[in-house]
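Could you join me in thinking about how sequence relates to backbone shape in a protein? Would you write everything just below, so we can both look at the same thing?
***
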Amino acid sequence: MSDESSAEGGVDRAELQELRASHSGRDQVVETLGDAAAEGRLTAGELDERVERALGARTLGELAALTRDLPEQGATPGLPSTDVVRIEKRFGTAEWVGTWLVPRRMEIRLTVGNAKLDFTNAVITHDQLSIDVDLGIGGDLTLITKPGIVVEANDVTVRSMAEINVRPAQQDPDSPVALRVEVTGQLRGGNLLVRYPKGIR
């Protein structure tokens, strides 16, 4: 995730680089630069210059430029890889909206509470997301997807008055799939809704 037109995991690199840098992202780059100087890859002058630029960086693109010529760089600074996210909600609402990093796996437990995962502007770095759900009575989960994201919920156990409602149109078999979401678990009175944002059919 050429810089202006390529995409990684369904996210345009140019858009990703415009995201605001965090303190942890700046610290990560400074540490990487220090290691590179210790290995003799950067002179003392280069180190001082790059550290100063890192501490004043505003975007992820500015940070990435400081380590682009160094070997074995990991994930984009400020967007660390995430493996498992757990959401447990009783009485209330949890919303993942805007720009957020999609993990490899999510475990969602809801009882008389709602959760919404909006993938419209999410940062996708993996091609598959596994979601294990346990939705008790009154626990509703909504997934807002977009073309290129396919949701499979065939292995979800539905009990009581629970429902699964997948509204997106069938994915064109010739269209690229940026993310495949596999939902498993059980609905014990809660509902699972999958839909596109308003205005997209």
Confidence is low (pLDDT under 50) at residues 1-13, 72-81. The chain has two domains: 7-67, 84-195. Residues 23-38 form the longest helix (16 residues).
